[in-house]
């Protein structure tokens, strides 16, 4: 039974690492970082970058809280028109529901993994080593699939979780104007970097214990 629990805890490690890495990127700092880059795409229709940044942060708030979603619905463009169409609002509702499951589940899996690390003392070294190795291999596999054709990977992900049409927008829609594809590509890279840092720290910790046994 202990071995089974051990393998389950190793198996869940990349999933909680991915969830927590994503949550760290789903923050205002990343929006500020992207919008401060000189090569960040300009809006083809002339919307000011500071206004885009403001709307982008509002969009982030919308997918993280119900209050933010209500503010998002009322958002206006500088000329007074509604910033987002109903289809865009509906998609953000879908993302809000998805993240309201993903992030708490990630925290739960992390707590399970941590409890296993605490109570399975004789397996602690192996658990750290195997969790780190498995997570890094997981990231390499996902990375190869994603970056071979990022646009296709983006499409497959959205089709799977949100259906084939609800997330597709016109180039004139505000969501695409405040979150261009480069934003998502860089966000994926940022998640990957944080993921590899966490996985490496786990692996190094296991190796440290092994050397000091």
From TrEMBL:
<dbReference type="InterPro" id="IPR010178">
    <property type="entry name" value="Lit"/>
</dbReference>
<dbReference type="Pfam" id="PF07314">
    <property type="entry name" value="Lit"/>
</dbReference>
<feature type="transmembrane region" description="Helical">
    <location>
        <begin position="5"/>
        <end position="26"/>
    </location>
</feature>
<feature type="transmembrane region" description="Helical">
    <location>
        <begin position="127"/>
        <end position="147"/>
    </location>
</feature>
<keyword id="KW-0812">Transmembrane</keyword>
<feature type="transmembrane region" description="Helical">
    <location>
        <begin position="98"/>
        <end position="120"/>
    </location>
</feature>
<keyword id="KW-0472">Membrane</keyword>
<keyword id="KW-1133">Transmembrane helix</keyword>
<feature type="transmembrane region" description="Helical">
    <location>
        <begin position="183"/>
        <end position="204"/>
    </location>
</feature>
<protein>
    <submittedName>
        <fullName>Integral membrane protein (TIGR01906 family)</fullName>
    </submittedName>
</protein>
């Amino acid at each position: 039974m202990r071995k089974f629990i051990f393998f389950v805890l190793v198996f869940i490690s990349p999933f909680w690492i991915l969830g927590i890495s994503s949550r760290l990127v789903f923050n205002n700092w990343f929006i500020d970082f992207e919008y401060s880059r000189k090569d960040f795409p300009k809006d083809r229709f002339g919307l000011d970058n500071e206004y885009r940044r403001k709307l982008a942060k509002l969009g982030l708030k919308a997918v993280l809280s119900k209050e933010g979603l209500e503010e998002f619905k009322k958002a206006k463009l500088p000329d007074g028109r509604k910033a987002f169409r109903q289809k865009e609002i509906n998609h953000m509702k879908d993302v809000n529901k998805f993240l309201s499951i993903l992030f708490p589940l990630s925290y739960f899996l992390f707590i399970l993994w941590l409890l296993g690390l605490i109570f399975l003392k004789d397996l602690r070294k192996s658990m750290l080593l195997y969790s780190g190795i498995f997570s890094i291999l997981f990231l390499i596999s996902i990375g190869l699939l994603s970056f071979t054709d990022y646009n296709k990977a983006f499409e497959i992900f959205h089709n799977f979780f949100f259906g084939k049409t609800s997330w597709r927008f016109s180039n004139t829609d505000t969501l695409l104007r405040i979150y261009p594809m480069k934003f998502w590509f860089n966000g994926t890279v940022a998640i990957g970097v944080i993921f590899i840092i966490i996985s490496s720290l786990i692996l190094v910790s296991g190796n440290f214990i092994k050397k000091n046994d």
